[in-house]
């Protein structure tokens, strides 16, 4: 049911509401406006998924409401001081100024708000009516706001702490079986929980400027995005901390935290010579002790910023920092310029995580996902950033180890994971695809194009004003930057983002060594075959031929389900490896090498590749000299498979073959050959 306030009620509550404000701002609550001429690029729909193979799909977003700025006052004293036993249903109070414009005429706007009660609302300093509806509040503007015109909305509200959006814990409160010595409050709202902390337009494409005023008890510190602008003491002993971020951001990147914090201030020198201050906040006993030490855990941060600038370009903001909090159910959250991180990350074992969150300042903050379908742009870039930093510290081995760790985690769940693009809302943060596989998409682009991709990526991330982008815009951008791709762009992104899974490659190599030279024939078959999985992936594939002390590499472009490669190698080859440098996200399910040397006499022209017994479900490969046909019979005489008229290689699908002994008759071009196959 909608609730309406009378004018008399508004005035009575307004007196209480203004008491929440510090004295130095109460007289200018409506007048202070922060504006920026460009906040985000509008999103335009293209088409649905049916056209994905020709052009990448886009999502239509409602850009009617365009928020210019939020200015927020939070009173967090009760959240961090009231004992757990006395809490009951805990509330917090706040005020928000919202400066906004519209892209079409409206006489009311609806904001997202969950477990938020609006006590007072005014538009341009005139009291107005609000209606509470499911998931939001609708505000009557009292006039028709024309396209491009600006209004200022002020809302006084009470929030119900619900362990969503705004979190608060008192000193010594027991939560997740651990005691905490100081009260703490913080916001964590990705993807759409900002509405539990304050009324807002909770959409990733709508970026606005933020100013936060945080009221805390004496001895506590309030922290938010950007830079600390002011500290004011009230007569009752409470303190207001004012922070302002001069770059626009979406609601989910807004940060508020309060506790008894010690600080560690650092600075990094950017590649363009700027000094980037790094502000770190943590509990006093975690400064340099055991098991937590901010001094030790954060020692690499001054080098990490210029280290990642090599790949992502100039660091986009004026400062950076961390708030370390507990209890926290996540590892960290990339709030713009002020990452929220788990206290456990101060144990010195989370440098990859710190690199991940810093990388987000580029892939996720300066350029944010335009919709939640595009979350891979954020998380894939940051996951790849972990490997980039590991490479800076430990060289190529460090980079490769980090990417292989991501690959292993992806493979554990790859059969059931959703597609990278447009996952179900409840799976947008699944580790397998959103983090690991998405990171590999960045990695594969890097491996294919090297510095050309790095230059293009830096251009993509070099926005003077933070923006939001959809995947189709990234695809179109790369088409402009790299006009002659190794794999057609539409094919590349369709198979890796819209489709599921990855290539599984069965390789069969025949090596004929004579007079110190090897004639190598490699047959490649993509054997992935499941609903909604491409039967053919296209990708560059490295082949490595190895002898006793020599190695030679070559690369082919795989475009078909079956490929045959003939290579002459100037030394005796003992083995062949697929994708030796881990350039592609694939599995080599079977790697078989048949070696025929000068001193080996071939008694038969028909060979079954692989080991005995053969594993059911794994493709069975028959090698033959000439055009042959083959039939397979079970022990009771039933013919279960037949392949005809193929030169050199027959591949049998053994799914459904039961353990036992089978007879294979091979005919054509040579006397009939009988082979027995044991299947396990």
Describe what you observe in this structure.
- The protein is of the alpha+beta class and 680 residues long.
- The protein folds into five domains: 1-22 and 60-255, Immunoglobulin-like, CATH 2.60.40.1730; 261-361, Zincin-like, CATH 3.30.2010; 372-498, Neutral Protease Domain 2 (Neutral Protease, domain 2); 502-600, Sandwich (Immunoglobulin-like); 606-680, Sandwich (Immunoglobulin-like), CATH 2.60.40.1930.
- The chain contains eleven helices and 36 strands.
- An eight-stranded mixed sheet has the order 5-4-8-2-1-13-16-15. The chain has a five-stranded mixed sheet with strand order 18-19-20-22-21, with helices on one face.
- The termini are far apart.
Sequence-ordered SSE layout with sheet pairings:
Blueprint: H1 7-19, H2 23-26, E1 65-75, H3 77-81, E2 91-102, E3 106-112, E4 116-123, E5 126-127, E6 130-133, E7 136-145, E8 150-160, E9 165-169, E10 174-175, E11 178-179, E12 184-188, E13 208-216, E14 221-224, E15 227-233, E16 239-249, E17 256-259, E18 262-269, E19 275-282, H4 294-297, H5 301-312, E20 320-325, E21 332-333, E22 339-342, H6 351-360, E23 367-369, H7 375-413, H8 431-449, H9 451-460, E24 467-469, H10 471-481, H11 489-498, E25 504-514, E26 517-526, E27 539-546, E28 551-558, E29 562-569, E30 575-578, E31 587-596, E32 606-608, E33 620-633, E34 639-652, E35 660-667, E36 673-679
Parallel strand pairs: 1-13, 19-20, 20-22, 23-24, 25-31
Antiparallel strand pairs: 1-2, 2-8, 3-7, 4-5, 4-8, 6-7, 9-12, 10-11, 12-17, 13-16, 14-17, 15-16, 18-19, 21-22, 25-26, 26-29, 27-28, 27-30, 32-33, 33-34, 33-35, 35-36
